[in-house]
User: Fold these one by one.
Assistant:
Number 1:
Amino acid sequence: MILETSLLDRAGSRKPENKGRIETMLQKMAEEEARYIKEKKEIEQGAKKFEKLRDLHRSKDPFFAFAEVLLQIAIVISSISILATSYKVFYFTLNSAILGTLLAINGFLIIFRFPFFH
């Protein structure tokens, strides 16, 4: 559209019959610009909602990561406690599993926050 307007402007040296077409094209371009600005505002509003959702999920991620580590450690240490028949190690395993479970639950509900997790 811009190219056509430019060609009409140069080729016709602003002839009267081309002036109407140029004005029509300029009006269409102004309407398109207004539509693009409106769409941009709508897209920005949607993007802000997604940014808030992203930030929420990003704040939950460390809880799940540490919960996973603690639960895996609990599984390995429980195997060791069974082989060694040690109750002290088994109780350490239970504490690790409980802490991992609490962190996983907190990952879903965000009951408490740790400043060093960000």
Number 2:
Amino acid sequence: MLVSLMRLQYQYARTGQGWDEYTSARAKLAARMGPPPDNHLQFEAVIGSNAEMPSLHRVVPAYFSAVQTWLAKHGLESARR
């Protein structure tokens, strides 16, 4: 389901077509899984401003465990490789 959503998103980004299909698929996924764990990119930052974004190169150490916890909570732990 997530891969299908990403394909729709990329199709819209490339062509400008398919917005309704993308938003419908996103709403269905959100209804099934709930909101994502955080809307923040979770990069290590010094001051946290948008101007700092080009200089950020790594996520905070707890990022991957937070993602794994969220995946397991939603029955997607098999997505790990």
Number 3:
Amino acid sequence: MNHRTDHATAEHRFRALLDRSELPAPDEVAYLRDSLVFCWHESRAIVVVDLEDPLDELPEPILGGAAGDGFGGLDDGDFVATG
């Protein structure tokens, strides 16, 4: 599969995910060398999809911890401060 086809396939899959989730389509999509950038102007949101090292198998989603904290039961020590 060529580079441009990888991008088009990823965009199609992401748009299908948004549609199934009843989320709005992006206002703009940028094709960068190894990624896609989806932009929503009004909400000033972006999603970057890294195509450089695709996963053969998707990990299980984190849907909230035992206490329903929204972080899949992660503790403060599981986060790394940056910047």
Number 4:
Amino acid sequence: MKININDFQNALNVIFERLKDDNGENFELELNEDYYNFIPTEKLYNIDGLTVEVTIGSLFEDFELLNKFKSESHYSVPTDLIKFSSLIRYIGENLV
């Protein structure tokens, strides 16, 4: 399967617009948790083995890094996406 980046961006834009429509333009979500279990990429998609090695991630750090990256000329898109995904998951899990 191939994902068209424009289609993906449009889908994310729709999700964020609906979030703002439902909760207000300046909606804020409190990060009540900081640390989470992070499964390294080489283990995340390997479903053959039953053992899972996790490391610790930080939502606070992820958010701080994303804010820092947007203002710097040197950034890492892959790292930004990984950090963004942890925050997106937290938001999704805490809106239900």
